[in-house]
Specification:
alpha+beta, rod-shaped, 143 residues
């Protein structure tokens, strides 16, 4: 039988110490990943965000987590589905994970209106509307 040399592994996410990767990530309630657990590759660990959040940064520190609440995430009650069901546009001004429920629904032109975290009430000013598709508007009637 031929003896083989042992393969040493140093997974920085498993090592436990006050300044280790595992402590940094677990304090932020984020999973830790070490892409190369060989002893010659240190400092390459990173914290990551839980889905559906997107990981931004994170190498050697807790990750910054982002989410665009208007992107479809496979749920019927999500922002995108809520606005789309009312034929409105969804926009999320702040993608940081700490800024949830700041998305807005905006009415399609020529109507106006916007609401945060809910469907907007849309209105048309009939005295200023002159579009070709508005044959019953006041401006079309008066001119």
């Amino acid at each position: 039988a031929t003896a083989q040399a042992a393969v040493c592994v140093l997974n920085e996410c498993v090592v436990t110490c006050a300044t280790c990767a595992n402590t940094t990530c677990s304090d932020a309630m984020q999973p830790c990943e070490d892409p190369d657990p060989s002893p010659s590759s240190t400092g390459d660990w990173m914290c990551s965000c839980h889905p559906p959040f997107t990981t931004v940064g994170g190498g050697g520190a807790a990750a910054h987590c982002e989410i665009d609440e208007c992107e479809p995430h496979g749920c019927a009650s999500c922002a995108n589905a809520t606005c789309s069901a009312a034929n409105q546009t969804c926009s999320d001004p702040d993608h940081w994970a700490t800024a949830l429920d700041d998305w807005t629904c905006t009415c399609p032109p020529p109507s106006v209106g916007e609401a945060t975290a809910q469907v907007a009430l849309c209105a048309i000013d009939e005295c200023t509307e002159t579009s070709a598709d508005c044959t019953t508007c006041a401006m079309a009637t008066c001119s």
